Amino acid sequence: MILKKTLQALKKRLDEKGNMEIVAEQGEIHTVHCSFNPPIASKELKDFQDEKGWILPEDVQQFLSKHNGAKMYEMLLGSINIGGGLQIYSLEEIKKTHDALKSLSDYIPIGYVFENNLLISRTALERDDPDYLYISGTLLKPEPLHSNLELFFDRFVVSQGSNFWEWPNYTAKNYYKQSGGIETSY
Question: Which of 3, 64, 117, 137 has the greatest number of beta carbons closer than 10 A?
Fold first, then answer.
């Protein structure tokens, strides 16, 4: 239910080209682009899961049945797309990416965010753990996001496409050192 409402709210904010302005970190204003693929037929989704021997989580199935892949919060410089943002893979992209990421065979790749893979832990699914979502760079060990797709997507939209999962790592002391901003003394 949250996924459907968040998708609807996001789409209401987009102009006819799929663009919107957001307020980003440090008061920056950016134009971002969102695009959504058509839905996947339920038979295709079932056949895919049968072929792979996977049962995708309900929220992932719900997203794919609404949009068989999407790209959201891609940064625009004028009218040029310079990347970034969140990509939720289509079934074909899930298959291709899983085959390419042989070292991560215990995971199902479902997307890409800020140069990191979004992964479903097959072990978490086997344990019926709702916090099945992990993140990993190409050569890094997957780290838990303590989330599922629905919750991650909702937080991503609320944070206007920011890497919210890293926010707990920023303190007032280290934020200014890492961002190159001016530290305020009180």
Answer: 64
Q: Which letter, b or e, does each residue of 36-53 get, where b requires 16 or more Cβ atoms within 10 Å of its Cβ?
A: bbeebeeeebeebeeeee
Q: Which two tokens stand for residue 2?
A: 């949250």
Query: Which parts of the chain fold into alpha helices (H)?
Result: 2-13, 42-52, 58-66, 91-100, 122-126, 149-158, 172-179
Q: Which residues contact 62 (CB under 8 A, 6 or more apart)?
A: 3, 4, 150
Enumerate residues 6+ apart whose C-beta is below 8 A from 21. 29, 30, 31, 32
Q: What is the pLDDT of residues 62-95, one digit of tens each?
A: 999 999 999 999 988 877 777 789 999 999 999 9
Report field, pTM of the whole predicted structure over 0.90? no
CA distance 140 to 123: 18
In the block, residue with structure tokens 């074909």 = 92
156 CB-near residues (< 8 Å, 6+ apart): 72, 73, 86, 113, 162, 164
